[in-house]
Amino acid sequence: MRYLTVDGYFDGTGIRDAANGGYLEHDEVGISPDLSKRIDVWLEQYWKEFIKGFPDRDKIVELDDEGIRIAHRLKKEFPEDKIGYFSDARMVALYDEKVHGGFRSGNDCRSKGKNEDG
Q: Hey, what's the torsion of the CAs at 69, 33, 29, 18, to 10 degrees?
């Protein structure tokens, strides 16, 4: 079992080894090509907001919602692993199986009417 965290850290790969530290390449993790592309697109959007200093809260919520959906998709591909999502914009874990078993509730960290795969 691995402990993986999805995050949008600038110049990261989008998937961090939460147990041992460091970022993992997508092919090293073994994720599907579709999910790899989805992560790359999401990272590009996240980094654009980072460079601007995260001025738009609604955009942050949108990006974090997509990050959480990516974490769900990663969990579907690797059900034996513990998956988390960390919002670099808000500096808080919004999803972490090893800490609280799933999503944090409240505020705007839940998806807005979209299924967990997006």
A: -30
Rounded alpha-carbon distances, angstroms, from residue 59 to 4, 12, 54, 72, 83:
24, 20, 8, 20, 23
> pLDDT tens digits for 68-92?
999 999 999 999 999 999 998 888 8
**In the block, which residue shows the tokens 């998806």?**
111
- Whole-model pTM: value is 0.81
Separation CA 93–CA 106 (nearest Å):
13
8 Å CB contact between 78 and 5: no
**Can you give the residue ranges of every domain in the chain?**
3-103
